[in-house]
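re: that chain from earlier
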Amino acid sequence: MIQKILIAVAGLGKCEEMFKMLLEIPAIQQASVTVLHIVPPQVTAEAMAAKLEEGGKILASAIQYLNLEPNKVTARLKQGEPKDTVCQIADEEKADLIIMGSRGLKRLESILENSVSQYVFQLTSRPMLLVKDDIYVKKVKRLLVAFNGSEASKQSLQLALFLLRGIQGGQLFLSHIKPVDKASKAGELGNPEQDPVLQPAIAEAKKQGVSYKCVAGNGKPGEEICKLADELSIDLLVVGSPERRPSVAKALPDLDRLLGNSFSDYVRVQANCPVLLVRTTS
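^ sequence. v structure.
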């Protein structure tokens, strides 16, 4: 269930546009929304006052654009480091979904340029919808779930099914990306409907009455799922991102993921559609 949504805004952009599309989904229409704008530290009091005034205008513009019922929206103007403050407010609000914009910086660039969305992606335990600045936002009808039977992919499936229920003409696409060495065996890619890994996902889609289609893929998982998203004109790509760091390192970026050894990070950077990252701490 998505009952509380946090949208981090920095001026009218793709986040607000994406949320307007989400509002057409019946399952989202009853959610309460917190619209957040963060003012980073300034050198002088005068500069801070000016930034706070500007931030208030940004919030007002975003809320006017979203056109939400007053009792369903809360505006929050906060001072602080943006990357830390988004996580803090998400926890305070007990947000079921964070929506953020992203410049789609590649991994090393993210570190060097101190990407806010990358940092939040690393540290939050909450589902996070990333909308890159250079993508075209469409009505959400065609969802692709990368499913491999893991707990993270199961949670991704459940969230996708939740969103699709009630969408007229909505369709779920399921793909289990197989490594080249395994996929090359005779017949393995012949009929993805027969893939044993996808059987629980297929059963759940049928149980919930959601139209689905299985699509085969083989190769490097990140590259292949992005390619499928393009070929299928996917509106929203849903992937799981398990938490791998020990608790002692929760406050540190996961350099393995930042430097490229992560399926979810590759998709975050390379996908040409909005990406919903579903966290699991298992």
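The chain has a mean pLDDT of 84.
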